[in-house]
Write a structure and sequence with these properties.
Shape: rod-shaped
Radius of gyration: 56 Å
Largest sheet: 3 strands, antiparallel
Distance between the termini: 147 Å
Number of helices: 5
Strand content: 5-15%
Structural class: mainly alpha
Order of helices and strands: EHHEEHHH
Strand order of the largest sheet: 1-3-2
Number of strands: 3
Oligomer: single chain
């Protein structure tokens, strides 16, 4: 076959092993290259797969073979790095546990302070509630006492507050009942 310029094309039909020999690689690398370049494949009469290929168009450069000694140095360096990282991880785990213990202590201190503050506030509020209950009971007693008295006693008791009582009148009334019933000059029966 000839191209448009008059040069013959170098198209060949090769097996994977023959292609690997020409490229200087393994048969697996030749099979991978054929798949990657999507080269046409046909089964041969001998049962082997043949690839139709133009070797001039392929720009294949096999990688240099690695020496086993070079890999050993890399493996040793990586193992040393792994050991350092594991030691660092262990120190971080210990530090994490110490911080968690410290945080738990601080949390307990905070809860204790909060409990003390709430207890103090509760005691203050209970005192305020107790004094409010006492005041409400006192006011309720005064209200009941005012409602029980007839109107004229309320009037006389109000007038009694306006003018001061003499010491003799106060002494004669003392001890004879509640204060709202004390009227100067009026004997009280209980």
């Amino acid at each position: 076959m000839a191209t448009g310029r008059g040069e013959p094309m170098s198209i060949e039909s090769l097996t994977y092993a023959e292609l690997a020999g020409r490229l200087g690689s393994s048969p697996e690398a030749a099979r991978s290259l054929a798949r990657r370049l999507r080269l046409p494949r046909k089964p041969g009469n001998d049962g082997k797969v043949r690839i139709t290929i133009d070797l001039d168009e392929i720009q294949y450069k096999p990688l240099p073979a690695r020496s086993p000694g070079g890999q050993r140095a890399d493996i040793d360096a990586l193992n040393a790095r792994i050991a350092r990282l594991q030691a660092e991880l262990a120190s971080f785990e210990v530090e994490k546990l110490c911080l968690e213990a410290s945080a738990a202590g601080h949390r307990a201190d905070f809860e204790r302070e909060r409990c003390d503050t709430l207890m103090a506030e509760t005691l203050i509020l209970s005192k305020v509630a107790m004094s409010a209950r006492e005041k409400a009971a006192r006011l309720e007693g005064a209200m009941c006492a005012r409602e029980v008295r007839p109107w004229w006693r309320r009037f006389v008791a109000a007038g009694d507050k306006r003018r001061p009582a003499s010491a003799a009148q106060t002494a004669s009334v003392r001890g004879r009942g509640p204060a709202y019933l004390r009227v100067p000059g009026v004997p009280v029966r209980i």
